[in-house]
Amino acid sequence: MPRPSSSSRHRARRILSVVAIAALCVPPSLFAWGAKGHRLVGTAAATALPSDMPAFFRAATDQLTYLNPEPDRWKVRAERDLDPALDGAFNADHFMDTEMATPAALAAALRAPHRYAYIDTLRAAGVDAVKMGFLPFAMLELTQRLRQEFRMWRSAPDSATRAWIEARVLDDAGVLGHYVADASNPAHTTIHYNGWDGPNPNGYATDRNFHSRFEGAYVQAHIELGDVQPRVAAEPRVLTDLRAEIIAYIARGNAEVERLYQLDKADAWGIDTRSAENKAFASERLAAGATMLRDLWWTAWVTSAGPATAPR
Hints:
mainly alpha, P1 Nuclease, 17 helices, 62% helix
């Protein structure tokens, strides 16, 4: 086999350099609920849809899976270094540190009509809403957008318009999936999101790798689609009160925070974890996300059967 020319070798070195630089620009979350956990939730939700869901949606499993990690892709450092606007706009949509507010203040804030009133309500209680997070509103807003898009799809005047709406539906449904998956991870619902914060009588982990050890390293090494799919609820639900259901869903995740840390204390989360209890916990949390996501998609479709409210 002939040796490559010097110009070919030079081009090859340039390509390798470009690849190496590009790798440095990829956000850490893409190597890690790291990207694999998000994809698992997207696939498990999409493959659990009922047959009455529109055919274009049921055929989009790969696209919905791809889009589930999407909001983490917006965190790329190269863009943040140019201007922090994009990063600052959406970071707080990924979490809600529930314990920052008293139960009464939290309940009042979650009754606020929209995220801006939520900010005002928390501010009156002495709580910084940006630090506490907007996760329930991110989920609610996107579900409402999706329902309205389904209304428009139902009444589209021609096939071309319907195709455009389908693209919008799938994009918003995929991005919604990211925040639903985030909420299934107890670490996205608590002040103890990356190591136990404050008084720690039980001696839980305080390292600042805790979050990535669980949702990234452990899931990447140990959880597969076959661990998640059997745990997804078989029957879809139509959620009659979206806000109440979303709040209850986040509360269920928050109720698992101490269990998350207890399991870590018994067998630390990471690539070397071997406990069957740890595997069951992570699989059940991912399945809870897939169940909720499937039900939100299904609810948006079923309840969109009312009259369209937007101009064509």
